[in-house]
Amino acid sequence: MSEKLKSRSPHHSHRSPNLLNVHRGHGPGTSHPHMGERLEQFFGRATSYTDEAVGHLYEPPLEDRIQAARSKNQEEFKHVVEEAHDEYEHFQGANKWASASSEQLAKDLKSSCIKGLTSERVIEARHEWGDNALEKEGTVSAWWLFLMQYKSPVMILLVVAAIVSLSIGKVVVGVAVLVITLWNASLATYMEKSASDALAKLASMAAPKCKVIRNGAEELIEATELVPGDLVLLSIGDRVPADIRLIDVNELLSNEALLTGESEDIRKQVKVNGEEAKEAFAKNMCFASTSVTNGSGRGLVVATGMHTQVGIIAQHLKAASQSEQLTPLQKSLNKFGLIQGAIAIAFLALIIVVAITTGYRDPSHPEDGRFFSILMVAVGFAVSAIPEGLPMVVTICLSLGCGAMVKRQAQVRKLPAVETLGSCTVVCSDKTGTLTEGKMTAVTLHAVSESEDPATPDAPPTEEFSFFPTKGFHPNGGIFAASELRKDGAKEAIMAKWDAGKWYDFENGGLVRDHGNPVNGKGKVRTIMMAASLNCYGTQLKMVEDGRWVTEGNMSEGALVVAAAKARIGIGEEDGQFASVTHHQAKYLRINALEVPFNSSRKMMVTIHQLHTPGVFEGMSLPDSSMTHVAIIKGGPDRVMPHVGSCPQDGTDKEGNPTYRLASQHTLKDQQRTDIERVNNDMAKNALRVLALAVRPLSTEDVSLLSTLDTADVRLDAILGRGTPLPSSKQSPHPSQPLALMGLFGSVDPPRTGVRDAIEECNGAGVRVIMITGDQKITASAIAREIGILKHEQGTEGAIMCEELRDKETGEHVEEGALDEITSRVNVFSRAQPEDKMAIVRSLQRQGGVVAMTGDGVNDAPALKAADIGTAMGIAGTDVAKGASDMVLLDDNFVTIVAACEEGRKIYANIQKFVTFLLGCCIGQIVYLTISILIRLPLPLEALQILFINVISNGPPAVALAVEPADEDIMKQPPRKKTASIITRPFAFFAILPHAVIQTCAVLLSLAFAMYLNTGYVTSDSVQTEPCRTYKVDGDDFAWPYFCECREFTWDKGWQIDIDYYDPNDSTLKHLDRAYIGTLEPGTLRPEDVPQVAEAYTKYENSNSEPLYNDDDKPRQPGQWAKPQNLATKEFYDDAVYTCVVRGTQRARTISFLTAVFCEIPRGYTVRSWLPIFAVFNRNKWLHIACGTSAALAILITLIPGVNYVFSTVTLSWWMYFYALGWAVLTVAGAELGPKPLYRWLQRRKKARDVAALEDKKAGTAV
Length: 1263
Hints:
Layout: H1 33-43, H2 49-55, H3 62-72, H4 74-92, H5 94-99, H6 102-108, H7 119-129, H8 142-148, H9 153-167, H10 171-204, E1 209-214, E2 217-222, E3 231-235, E4 243-255, H11 257-260, E5 266-267, H12 274-277, E6 285-286, E7 291-303, H13 309-316, H14 328-358, H15 370-385, H16 390-407, E8 410-412, H17 416-421, E9 426-429, H18 431-435, E10 441-448, E11 450-451, E12 462-468, E13 478-481, H19 482-485, H20 490-499, H21 524-535, E14 540-543, E15 549-552, H22 555-565, H23 583-587, E16 604-610, E17 616-617, E18 620-621, E19 627-635, H24 637-640, E20 644-646, E21 649-652, E22 658-661, H25 670-685, E23 688-699, H26 700-708, H27 712-719, E24 739-748, H28 755-764, E25 768-772, H29 777-787, E26 799-801, H30 816-823, E27 828-830, H31 834-846, E28 851-855, H32 861-866, E29 869-873, H33 879-884, E30 887-889, H34 894-934, H35 943-953, H36 955-961, H37 985-1015, H38 1020-1025, E31 1028-1031, E32 1040-1050, E33 1054-1063, E34 1068-1077, H39 1091-1103, H40 1130-1136, H41 1140-1160, H42 1163-1166, H43 1181-1199, H44 1203-1206, H45 1214-1233, H46 1235-1262
Parallel strand pairs: 9-25, 9-28, 11-21, 20-24, 25-27, 26-27, 28-29, 29-30
Antiparallel strand pairs: 1-2, 1-3, 3-7, 4-5, 4-6, 4-7, 8-30, 10-12, 10-24, 12-13, 14-15, 16-19, 17-18, 19-23, 21-22, 23-24, 31-32, 32-33, 33-34
Helix pairs in contact: 3-4, 4-13, 8-10, 9-10, 9-15, 10-16, 10-35, 14-15, 14-34, 15-35, 16-34, 21-22, 25-29, 28-34, 30-31, 34-36, 34-37, 35-43, 36-43, 37-41, 37-45, 37-46, 41-43, 41-45, 45-46
Organism: Vitrella brassicaformis (strain CCMP3155)
Transmembrane segments: 154-183, 336-360, 372-405, 914-935, 987-1013, 1182-1202, 1214-1235
Keywords: ATP-binding, Ion transport, Membrane, Nucleotide-binding, Translocase, Transmembrane, Transmembrane helix, Transport
């Protein structure tokens, strides 16, 4: 390996295994710079750390990003993979692993090919290697996240405004703006970090697990706990958790498209030759992040985490971690924000032009120059244009929604699914385990045999037996003839013994006979149950710690395993406990290499066993002693029956003992076949899932030939008589139908509690429910009618077998038009294969549907990815299915899907509510700020006040709306369109615009009246020119006031006059409120009318020879106000900038600020529902707390000294607070009595028209 690749990242600081002289000692470092530069150019610049902090938990998984990297530039990606493999080969010794013997490998890894690692070695390896984590994302620090908050245009603008304020001496304003930005950045950092941590905890719930053998026992552990040397068991559907050297395989296929780009599955083998061992991806190894698509195997872990092939590739593709991290909703909100910002900028440009041309100055800040006044106008508009709290609240809402879904057993893996759930129109669900309980219980067995008694040649070929009692997975019980069990008192007597704790003691003095009891001989029932148990070897029955019995493995096999236990097969007879190694498994050794595993296309499974005694299988005699093995076939009746040519025969020997044998020349009659089909249909109509069990005796020559066949499908064809003929076929009268049918099992899987109600709820919500199942059409239809997917009068109408979706000649799906016609009317699809699911999804999507699809198998992954909401099973689902899904059902329950749809609708509705709330407030601010400039009113709000409202005052109610309970009729509304805007027409025209208009009127009227009540003037022009008399000082542009006269209304005294006058005794400007009680015409107040002023003038004139001067710079006469001469001291300036005009304007603006706050806070109550406010007033306690907090904070910043100075507010008289509150009451009344009733009336009118149209349509159809 070149030197450039010897430097390792921090992820690779652990040492390599001491295996075959693998190179050691690579310390921490960095990846190759040239490759980093090349990949930087290849992928473009990295995304922001802020987006990463918020979004990295719901970005596409590593394998998806590697696939995306390949699609961008295949040649570049190929080169990167080659370099990564070179590093892998040198650092890990890949080729030596492939060529080393399994014994040597286990020795070097301090493991065992049989018992795996010891607990002590696991601890050592964990300490040496750490977690088996494919990719450790660098955690974004809170400080860095905090700093990244300042990237937004609003924050930049505010910081610039603060710097400008500080540079021109406006220290208080500058510091206040910085404090507000610090508060906003801190709050956003806390919220984003909290949301990120919450999502991380939810994501950890979906952590993959794997089966390992440690200390000789099988364990299920977290994949992250794997260490080199672990002995891992792989089976179909597993995601390979690490790089593994295989030591045993059974039809193991692996999809390595992630690494190779080749879609075809790779067949794995244990041994490879020298040349094959040098291949980049040797066939005796499985690699992390690839998937097992068929078969099973086991192997030793040789590399974990970032030392695996995919881990090193990921390290070289670090720059590829640039996936889109914004959900569609967030992107649409960003786009909406840009549009709103553009509109605001247009308004801002207009207002700035008007402000410049009219010489606008803020009457409450006469000391500010025109430039600074216009700058603050610009800042105010910028702040009002963008709802600063919106992204934060959206993130909080989505994360809270994910947490709420987990409480309802739905774990969201990809955040956009939260939004998509609200628009779901079709749910395609599996039946078993999702619509049903998934606790398959065998209830009946129809044993198939022909009577050898000449007296009964036409006897039915089946005899019905019942498994009883059926108490979940409890094995205690027996197998009784159905006719005997129907006798009076039979079931009651058995249940009495069962309740008394009796084990396998139910015959009750001959009232019924337990055919599962070995004391009664090895009859056909025990032989059938033995065959079933042998075939279901992969499913175990065990008792857990709390005393419950459970099955581990396949759901359908679990029913047969429990049924076999009732025949004392697979369970100890003395103590009733499950034996770890059962006698029958040792008696009939399974040939693992010849097994044909079950898959969705075969719908059958074959195991081959060596007979303990040639020619005899349990209680059944085979045609001759040359039969040394038996193939046991289990599958759907429609798949097994076409290959059945015979069945066992019942008879008696010379001594009168019953016999049970399989004759070589026996052939199943047509009538018998018809009777068997009838039994199958009857069971299916009763919603029983039917499995057929058949056998085929095999000779040693047959087994030898089968062992030469390469694949399971080829072996299956040979066993079924449709492929390579087996030697024993020559002796059969029906070589093309070599199977002997032993019995039909009927299992019940009752619908889950609440499923019928959930489906009814879906129908009311406009969500169509489709069942897609592998069951027979009759069984599927029966279940569908029971739970309400099909109507009872439909029969099997509305249900089809998926073979009808295909062209009979080509086997391909029919053309799109025909397929769409079928999927538009059919709600039950039986005998479905994974590719059928994909076709159904695409067809429904072509028709405009938003489709949720459930799946659990590895072959379901394409359909899950294609669906709008891929939904994997959390219990029965494979790792591959979960990895392809958007959502995981933690309880595998259909009711959870409906709950998730409801939760998704609620989340989206709440987002709509607080977006409407925040945008309505921002639009209202833009409108009344614009109008106030145009009509020459003072600005109702200053920049800091706007920022306070948008961030601090509006924030709590917006967050409270994020946890608003769902409306009662939320699942009675049709789904929203997926492409619908977050702001719909009803919200725009009946919520946002009316509020903007009403709030604008309220704020501007409140300001206008407040200006008049506190200054006697209304417009900014009049209040700046009429109340005050000013003079200029040489070299100073500031107009120094020496007398101001304002009118103020007080609650106790009515109208009064406030003045500011020049006191010549100490050369200051004195402020005198309530200088005159009553009203006078402006300009008629005289100094003599104010005792304090008259006294001051008299005092000066008596003690000074220099006269006082009037407005004309002439000696003052009685009735005239004194004017200073060229006086410009700091003390006088400080007084001059706080005249009655300033004081009155500040009071008026404080009132308009409170009016704005009080008008916006109740918006949280009016936007939450179209119902009247009182109807839903108390359903969200957090909204009460939030609104109360916002109102209290707004009032406090007018009361607390120092704080009110910062925010340019003042303490008001008590009645002024109620004055501001009164405008808010009028705003609420305007919303509740105007647009909302109008909207409800329009909705009732529309509903009435729809009902009338439907009635007319029905009437027309009837005619």
